[in-house]
Amino acid sequence: MRIGSVSKFIFAVCLAAGAVQTSSAMFVIIAIPAAGGALFLWTGKFSAVGQTARAAIWFFVFIFVLHLFFHKGERIFSILFLSATAEGARTGLFYGAKFIVFAFCAHIILRTVDPFELVRPIERLARLLGHSGRSISYLATSFSLALRFLPDLVRQANIAALALKTRGAAFDRGFYGRLRSAVQLLPAVFVNAFKSSESAALALVVKGYSTRHLKAVFPPIRISPAGITAAIISGAIMILGWRS
Question: pTM for the whole thing?
């Protein structure tokens, strides 16, 4: 049965929240394949899992090294004035694995959640609150637009990278090479992002979006058995993470 965007969003948020609160390494070890499996199941692409894993591994290494050398405990070895500790290694592995869970959950939201399908029930419920729900409706709309434009930012970054390559810019491989490339791309991406946001804001004003809270026709909220089951499982995962 089909699982909607709301259930996918709840699953990703609950799994990430459980990973934040847990102190159990077993929970994190189980959460990584669960998040990766959900990403593959809902995208149908192994490449989505591989891309997320490759992006997260660099941050995993950074978090591990940071804890390894800046955590008190029994010393394993030393490099100049830095000492690696066993407690730092365990802590670094634990928090690095947590970050991998966050990366998969974030990718689930970005790749599988339809922003408008997610926000429509919120706007419908906000209308029941009258004028007091207007701010909730605006906040939900802003959130949906942010999710909507994130893939566009990635696309603009790829276009900017191709434009720089045609002008002779060299993008080196490796962590530091990718970091230098990202610094070169940031100005162009942010300028295009601000232009797109201004254009979207003007378009919303022209189309009378300020009256949407009172005049828009929203589809009825439909709750499927699969969605209810997914929401219950998601809540159980979050509670398990909090209590473990």
Answer: 0.70
Give the other-Cβ count within 10 Å of 8's Cβ.
24
- Which amino acid would we find at residue 161? A
Which amino acid appears at position 139 of this protein? Answer: L
Distance CA 101, CA 231 (A): 18
Q: What are 77's strand-pairing partners? A: 84
Element (H, E) at 165: helix 134-166
Long-range contacts of 166-172 (CB under 8 A, 24+ apart): none
How far apart are the C-alpha atoms of 149 and 165, rounded to whole Å?
Answer: 24
Half-sphere exposure of 76 (CA within 13 A, CB side): 11
What gap in Å lies between CA 31 and CA 108, rounded to an integer? 13
Gyration radius (Cα) of the chain, Å = 22
Mind listing the pLDDT tens digit for each residue in 186-238?
Answer: 777 777 777 776 777 777 667 666 666 566 666 666 767 777 787 788 888 88
Tokens of 94: 């634990």
Output the CA torsion sign for 25, 53, 99, 95: positive
The residue with tokens 């991406």 is: 189
